[in-house]
Amino acid sequence: MAIGSSTHKAAKYSVVCELSSLIRLDICMHPIDCAASPLDRYAYSVDTPCVRMRLTRLATPNGPVTGQYVDGVVYADDGRYEVGRDGSLLPPCTPSALYCVGRNFADTLEQMEYDRPEEPDFFIKPPTSLIGHGETIPYPTFTEELTYAGELAAVIDERCRSLTPDEVPDVVRGYTIMNDVDALDQAGRTARKAFDGSAPLGPWIETDVDPTAIDMWTDVSGDRRQESTTELMLFDPFEVISFLSERFTFSSGDVVAFGSPANPGLIEQGDSIEVTYDGIGTLYNSVGESL
Prior knowledge:
By secondary structure, the protein is mainly β. 11% of the residues lie in helices and 35% in strands.
């Protein structure tokens, strides 16, 4: 159930609605051709038309701005900002917590020799783990086994708890992409997964997508490491969010990530990681030196 007053979703995105008369929000048949920079091109699906309803945040010299991303430009309530020239993309929301589900694909259970869970198996990353699209993942000094996991993630739109699966779509702002960076040789999930820079998120929030039938793939320095579909999740996004809402009160901007298919191999300094969820986009980050 939502906590506090409820507002229709169309009203919540007043920036998008007010700008609809100024910018073209129709179908883009060749989205890659529209990209404004090498980083921008990673955010598009490759083969299918897309409706451009992408909400994002931009770091500018005067502070963060929030708006809609269209063709390399963020349209905010105080004007337009060109990505790259006027600022860089931030994580597209400001969560109080990132709720992450593991062991949610059968091939991951086989890879890690895990038992099949009877209910969603979860852990929490703190907001300090966040970095944005295009930022460098710092290679931690305390690990020699760093890996990746390309995950679909929902962004919660309002304070809520105790949801049924049928109620979940009404409280989800949209979907984005997270890379669950993992220091495999550390003891316990918090040590492995909750460190600074362990949650690249972005590049934006896609507000119109069916999360239960999305193809995904992950390339590490040009090598295809993951390829799957959200249809193979053991617990679908609506079931996961409902399950977690029995235990936690969600705040606006909180993130729920739904796990990753098998992710063979490690990542090293100098690697680039591109996580694609078709219809949402591609999250791009590189691996850099230790902090």
